[in-house]
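Q: Could you write out the predicted structure for this multi-component system? I'm mainly interested in how the pieces pack against one another.
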Amino acid sequence: MTDATAGAAPGQKKPGKVLAADGRPLKESLNRALRLQKMRALMLIAPLLLFVLLTFIAPIADMLFRSIQNGIVSETLPRTTERLADWDAKTGELPDEAVYEGLYYDLFIAAERKLHTRLGSRLNYEMTGMSSLFRQSGRALDDIGDVYFDQFDDLDKNWDEAEPWAELMGDPAWLTKMQAWKKADGKKMPKFVLADGMDELLPRTAETYAAFAEYTQVDEGKSLVKEEPWVLVHTALYQDLMEKDVTGYTGPQAEMLKAADAAVGGFESITFKEGMQEVDEDWLDHGTWQTIQMYSPEFTNGYFLNAVDMQKTPDGPEFRNENQQIYGLLFKRTMFMSLMITGSCILLGYPVAWLLANLPMRQANLLMILVLLPFWTSLLVRTSAWKVMLQQQGVINDVLVWLGLVNDADRLVMINNQFGTIVAMTHILLPFMILPLYSVMQTIPPTYLRAAKSLGATNWTAFWRVYFPQSVPGIGAGSILVFILSIGYYITPEIVGGTTGTFISNRIAYHISSSLNWGLAAALGTILLAVVLGLYYAYDKIVGIDNVKLG
Amino acid sequence: MANQDAFVAFERVQKSYDGETLVVKDLNLSMPKGEFLTMLGPSGSGKTTCLMMLAGFETATHGEIKLDGVSINDISPHKRGIGMVFQNYALFPHMTVAENLSFPLEVRKMGKSDREAKIKRALDMVQMGAFAGRRPTQLSGGQQQRIALARALVFEPELVLMDEPLGALDKQLRETLQFEITNLAHELGITVVYVTHDQTEALTMSDRVAVFDDGRIQQLAPPDELYEKPQNSFVAQFIGENNALDGTIQEIRGDRCTVRLESGDVIDAVPVNVSKVGEKTRVSIRPERVEFNPELGPDAHTLQAEVLEFVYMGDVFRTRLRVAGRDDFVVKTRNRADQIRLSPGEKVKIGWLPEDCRALDAP
């Protein structure tokens, strides 16, 4: 007991550990006592927590991650990007033969797997023309391999057969199983096993054949003893035979291989660079290689640079041309219009909230229903209604013309521009301003105004110096709600915004659903989120988030 | 009717909110300068409405309200220069104590140095000088009410209205503040209209008390007169503890009358608002004026009573009796060494001086 009192009394010597009656530290005892309660509370919120985590936090995190993710280039073109790393774009020279070799291998495999077009669209965001370059290259790539294939074929027809290849490359044990396998048995196909020492003897061939084997078995579900290999494998074999000595090889098909080895010296050959040039002239374009090199790393700031109207260049990030800058303008416009909407909501909502808080119950209820009415109507209907109201042949223009205020020839343009968006969104977001304002105003007793008046203040002074400062938390809460909602609003600006009244969110939606540039959409979304958080932080610093009351 | 010297005067004032019922019915009241007048009554009796009409927050439906001889019916509240203290203090929460007090001076366009001097004086007056920089929410209820009082006084109004200012405080604090408010009012010579439903507060603080019921002033009198000489049975019942016995007037002889109770017993009383024999009446006797086994004159009437309950309350004993067929007759006796202590079931004779028993209207 003395311990406890000494600990509690302020200004005395530093309190030691306060002990509970059983001698344990009091804190520990308290924690033990509270643990059960905490567990129970946790259990109660667990379903919601899980739901939010799985359906909200995780997708958002994944989406945000996409804004820097760029693995597609190095995954699709692993050899190319690796060899390209040493290339210095600034010299103005094209990459050397090894890079072209890597590109041929990568592109061939990618084309077989139909992955090259995806990479093409990805790189097309950075440089137009990439998409068609990759698509056409995928089709024309066989021309290079056919040079060698035809010569092997001429040498020995077996080079165009599946089984001899399988015998040459495969492990004998695997081959036996493979030959015994029948699709009708319903058993799993035995997985390809490379013959011992083959990766030493014929490294490129082994690598490409393994890739072929995996693709054929896994993706196509076909037997390796029936499918003749890609022409890529023949190209690889030619290269291997030119470099390696196979005289010591005694395995299956040794004779065929040795015969080929003897013949390859006399084969007609082309460089990969020439080959790729024949496939498409653009492969000799310096810019193409620059782009590929710039987007080789697994993570990129390219999307973000893009989102702020910049681009990557070998000399570092640079702003785009004036006429290509669009996102800065859109962000500024979104900010400006959200502020306008918030401002109009305050101006229109404040008197309504005041009435709501001060009218007798019955009238206040009726008014409340009117305020809530928009919530019960479809958003689309409301927005479309504004279209009917505001268009040039619409209700308001008709009335103005009828009254003679506006000439029939120059009817006002009030829709498909910023004005239309601001009007429609103010209407839609007004309840979000009125409700927090109302709930704050409800807590301000009317006696404050009476007190102010009894102290000699006029109605205006009483309102401005006594009532208004107390309603500021409501304005703050409403403004934050309306501003954050409007900054990310999509449907209304899409319908009534035309070209000048659209928001950044419309651009994000475009990139998500039309251009399929999810990385850029994610970068734009991340910036939007950061702006909102920044504003929230600024608001907290200036006004204090404690001052925000929703009720 | 109107007193020309009156500082505050209500003349034939009526008030209705809905156009169907009158909340205040024909109110006439005049107050001299410097008076402390309390409006006392149950809730819904119209006392707060009267205060609000005086402050200007409600308009009189009919009649005239005058301040210092001038009709203020059409003057807006902020021009009346009346200080007001509210039940829930109504201190502006977004301003400090000093800013709260500064507010009425600022709207009167007073210079900074003058303001500061006045604020300091007002805060010292309520012994809150050290709290100028605090926010109202950092103060206790009693402290807040002191500040509210200082704010109502800082611009030196001649009339201050108080609407149940101590209603939200605990008993002890209430008593301290009652004393302080009365002292301040008398020191400053201000006129105070004080609204309360607490009769003790009304009796201890006021120069005069106006008892409100049903939109009318039932009695306007100094506290002692109100307690000892209630003009009607509502006042008798509302102020202090009271024993009421119903009966009919049997005989009136000047300032004495005899009343035959419903049980057949006959007692003496002072006729107050009864005029003729045979009229129904309710007699009122204060519990502390009743004596056990009285030694009164030979022709004095006494009643038989049976003790139902004996409560020891420290300074007094409270004995509940069955008298003339009623079970709620209470007698209070001082705790003296020689005082008899009765136990339930005992029979006893009770009596009182005829002047302590008032024959009032039958409700």
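A: Regarding packing and overall arrangement: Residues 65 and 71 of chain B are 6 Å apart (CA to CA).
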